[in-house]
């Protein structure tokens, strides 16, 4: 082969490699509702950094925190059209569209944060993600989570009766609404970024929240009665738009799935690690603390079950899985 031909082949190969790089290189957009200081946003940034490193700079991820791209309902629509590539979402919006996910919010499905972590890592919970492509046009990569849910109120809540008629902020989703309706309160759907002001201006009397958010957003400044109830876990899911997923090569799918999953998993680890110390931190503040457990809410739990055992086919399987992983 002449030198000229060799040079020609080498140049063609280089240009093919370069053009395939150009075609495959992506700047993904990842949206989420939490602010930069929140563990979910930190995990999204860490995922972005690692994807850039492991793809040798070929793929980047721009992270849009704090609802910059809209609320979760709007982000879900963008994911469905492919206008948004990825998101870390509460299960709230997903459970509104695929009711089987509502089973993850069964009151007292789990006893504590470690039990929640074990359940979210079980085959039964992971199997639910298979419904996402057909149900909402997204690929569910894996679960993260927030802390266990508690109630924080402007006035003392010594029993569920004290919540009767009270405007109580909830994350906007049906399973939580049904629980608080059953308690006789007036559940008021409000996304996380509006909660501080709603408490400050008296739009709501109480909020459904986790220890981590109560501390980082200083909600205790506006409502200083904490009912430690641990009544629900709070899963989060990392998703990729189904349209975008179909465009990725098998290697890129594996890379994105592996890295995103490991950062979601580290969110679960971090919530497990900090839950007890955050409870202690709250106990040391100048706030009134009351405790409650499953028995406190038995009537509301029965009403919730009557609704959701019909809506969420996965409820029995998740309960079984919760029993199986208990103490693991
Ligand atoms: C909430 O809606 O309460 C919430 C959402 C995301 C992270 C933490 C809390």
What can you see in these coordinates?
- The structure is a single chain.
- With 328 residues, the protein is an alpha/beta fold.
- Helix content is 49%, strand content 18%.
- It has 14 helices and 11 strands.
- A 6-stranded mixed β-sheet has the order 7-6-8-5-9-11. It has a 5-stranded mixed β-sheet with strand order 2-1-3-10-4.
- Helix 2 packs antiparallel against helix 12 and helix 5 crosses helix 14.
- It is globular, with a radius of gyration of 22 Å.
- The N terminus is likely disordered.
- The site of benzoic acid has 9 residues, from strand 8.
- Benzoic acid binds next to strand 8.
Helix fraction, binned, reads 40-55%
> What fraction of the residues are assigned to beta strands by DSSP?
15-25%
Structural class: alpha/beta
Q: Name the average pLDDT.
A: 93
* First-residue to last-residue Cα separation: 66 Å
Summarize the structure.
By secondary structure, the protein is α/β, with parallel strands linked by helices. 49% of the residues lie in helices and 18% in strands.
Indicate the topology:
Blueprint (H helix, E strand, L loop, with lengths): L2 H22 L2 E5 L7 H16 L5 E5 L7 H10 L4 E5 H7 L15 H8 L2 H6 L3 H5 L1 E9 L2 E5 L13 E4 L3 H9 L3 E4 L5 H6 L5 E5 H6 L8 E4 L5 E8 H6 L2 H34 L4 E4 L6 H14 L3 H11 L3
Parallel strand pairs: 1-2, 1-3, 6-7, 6-8, 9-11
Antiparallel strand pairs: 3-10, 4-10, 5-8, 5-9
Helix pairs in contact: 2-12, 5-14, 8-13
The chain binds benzoic acid (BEZ).
Which tags fit this structure?
alpha/beta, 18% strand, five-stranded mixed sheet, 328 residues, 11 strands, globular, binds benzoic acid, six-stranded mixed sheet, single chain, disordered N terminus
């Amino acid at each position: 082969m002449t030198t000229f031909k060799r040079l020609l082949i080498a140049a063609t190969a280089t240009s093919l490699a370069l053009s395939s790089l150009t075609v495959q290189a992506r700047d993904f957009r990842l949206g989420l509702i939490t602010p930069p200081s929140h563990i979910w946003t930190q995990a999204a940034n860490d995922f972005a950094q690692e994807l850039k490193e492991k793809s040798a700079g070929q793929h980047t991820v721009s992270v849009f925190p704090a609802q910059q791209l809209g609320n979760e309902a709007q982000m879900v629509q963008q994911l469905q059209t492919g206008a948004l590539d990825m998101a870390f979402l509460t299960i709230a919006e997903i459970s509104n569209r695929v009711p089987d996910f509502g089973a993850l919010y069964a009151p007292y499905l789990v006893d504590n944060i470690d039990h929640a972590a074990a359940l979210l890592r079980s085959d039964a919970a992971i199997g639910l993600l298979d419904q996402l492509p057909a149900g909402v046009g997204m690929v569910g990569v894996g679960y993260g989570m927030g802390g266990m849910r508690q109630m924080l109120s402007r006035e003392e809540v010594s029993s569920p009766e004290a919540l009767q008629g009270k405007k109580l902020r909830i994350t906007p989703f049906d399973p939580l609404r049904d629980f608080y309706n059953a308690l006789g309160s007036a559940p008021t759907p409000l996304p996380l970024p509006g909660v501080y002001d709603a408490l400050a201006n008296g739009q709501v009397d109480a909020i459904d929240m986790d220890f981590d958010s109560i501390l980082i957003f200083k909600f205790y400044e506006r409502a200083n009665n904490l009912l430690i109830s641990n009544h629900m876990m709070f899963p989060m899911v990392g998703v990729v738009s189904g349209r975008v997923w179909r465009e990725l090569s098998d290697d890129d799918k594996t890379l994105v799935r592996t890295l995103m999953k490991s950062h979601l998993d580290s969110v679960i680890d971090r919530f497990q690690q900090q839950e007890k110390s955050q409870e202690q931190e709250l106990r040391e503040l100048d706030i009134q603390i009351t405790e409650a457990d499953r028995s406190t809410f038995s009537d509301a739990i029965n009403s919730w079950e009557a609704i959701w055992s019909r809506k969420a086919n996965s409820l029995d399987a998740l309960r079984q899985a919760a029993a199986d992983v208990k103490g693991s």
